[in-house]
Amino acid sequence: MTRTRAVWIGPVAGLLAVVPAAVWWSRLPHRMATHWDLGGRPDGSMSRAAAVGLLLGVAVVAGVASGAFAARRSRAAGLVGGLAALFAWVTWTTVLANEGARSWRSASHVSLVVVVPGVVIGVVTAVAIERALPRRPLPELDHPLPSAGLRPGERAAWSGRVGWTPVLPAAVALLALVVLAFVRAWPVVVPLVVVAVALSAFCPVRVSADRRGLLVRYGWLPWPVTHIPLSNILRADAIDLQPMEWGGWGYRGSRRAMGRAAVVLRRGPAIKLDLADGSTFAVTVDGAAEAAGVLNDLRASAPGG
Amino acid sequence: MQVRVEPSSRTPLYRQIADQIRGALARAELGPGDRLPVARDLAAALDVNLQTVLRAYAELRDEGLVEVRRRRGVTVVASPARADLSISARRLVEGARRVGLADDAIVRLVEAHL
To answer: With a threshold of 0.80, does the pTM exceed it?
Structure first.
């Protein structure tokens, strides 16, 4: 159902460009205005066939490509489909501006603001396709899914912290001391101290896994918190995380923009979550297998899970 | 550390929580200096009343396993061996009750071994 929708949105958006071209073709001047200056006056033209062909071509090709991407469950479907919708909008506005004009110079004035609704339509289309896009099935695990052996009706709260000493803030503080020992370069020392304090404030990363899902808290401040609700978790696994495979240390990646993110404070055991929105989240923590087991068991026993 | 409770069990919830934490301390999952989860957070995680968790923490404090400080939370002070001893004491009392000893008789029993 949603798969068909994801496949059709892009082509339909692109084909919408055909409507104005077909309806008003005979009422368009032989040379069409295709560019307007900042004051809204037409200042560039193309032959009717080239202008309509180009706009229509991009919209239709992008639309069909979006459908093809969607059929292959590729995430590119959204972006390309949004482009098709944007070009369909540009086709409509260009044709309507030229419709009934005797020459391209007498085409209607078009302000730059006209681009705004086009971009909005493009973004809405892209999001709609992305939402309707079916997710790739999760790859099979080569080991049994971690379980904590939770009995039905039993509740569990797992909490842990990252087995990590504040090496980074200590190193920065040491650097500040070294600088201070040789030169009284306060403009250098003060920012270093500030960085050391800021880093240590985020230091003890605490992780909890329970009926609320996964919660990652940084330092002893109430904010920021990473919260992944249980209902968004498809599968929890324990992995041996290699920082270089995740982009290094710290908070790496972005769930929204890159489809994966990780809180990496050391190499080794980490909880890895496959989420319902198609993204992946990982956090390095001691006892990752136990935490993953708790999440899997709670998920299995959750109502509707 | 993992805390599990079973609401349908005959053991009161606060005792289940205290038992689980004692076990975690005895297994050295948490050691001296480590902090227990914030009571409010653990209550939310287990979907139990805050008072239930506070009662469990108070029991652990009375046994000398943790230290409760305002604002600084609950800190573990007992070694794994010390936590294990607490578990033995708990078992001794339960065993004594099972054979019908009254509380003062249990105290006398322990005194006799001193």
So the answer is: no
